[in-house]
Task: structure prediction
Amino acid sequence: MTDLLPVAPWGLAASATLAGVAWAGSVMRHDASLVDRWWSALIAASALAYAVVLPASGSRALAMGALLLVWALRLAIYISWRNWGHGEDRRYQAIRARNQPNFAFKSLYLVFGLQAAIAWIVAMPFLAGFAIDAPFGVAGGIGAALAAFGIVFEAVADAQMARFQADPANRGQVMDRGLWRLSRHPNYFGEACAWWGLWLMAVPAGGAWSIVSPLVMTTLLLKVSGVTLLEQDIGERRPAYRDYILRTSAFVPWWPKR
Result:
């Protein structure tokens, strides 16, 4: 790991530079929630920097890079499509209200700088995985399968939700069909699987230390910007969701309670 320390700042620099571009766009559009559309690109920017600086050769590096590309493109396109024309998300409106005056400048470090730093941490498996051309091994093979499963699982969950919300007959109802019958947040579960899988792929190359990546991502999904934040007041705004909470697993898919 110590040999990689001089390389690590390149990933942070790439993520921070792209975050600065996104911040400039958010100021012009008065919409700090643009950072959500750039989130996957910030992670990919760090990984790309490592691919340029390090050898990044071998089947594992190619597989990790391909999985990242599919994940990043799909998520960026989906979030951009979902949020198009809706203005600033209410979560960021609340952040804006709490940090006046001069939120436009403050958002550079409170929103975009913070996201760039987190993206850099999440991208750590690529720093490890691109450095050494080691065999896949059992852990690498399991990791590749788990990452692919997570990406597909998340994509299916998002597609099911998009179809549900597009039907006017479902207005005001709770989505409890398909994967959403087994988990209240199947998309987040798929996301976590993807990053635990990518970490396992880096383990044969001596990247066990990069476990900080899936740990941070899972914590964000469960306790920070994911499940906890989305559900903190949803029961009050949508009473039917309280029943959904009682019968449905929050994260790991499981058969619903009767």
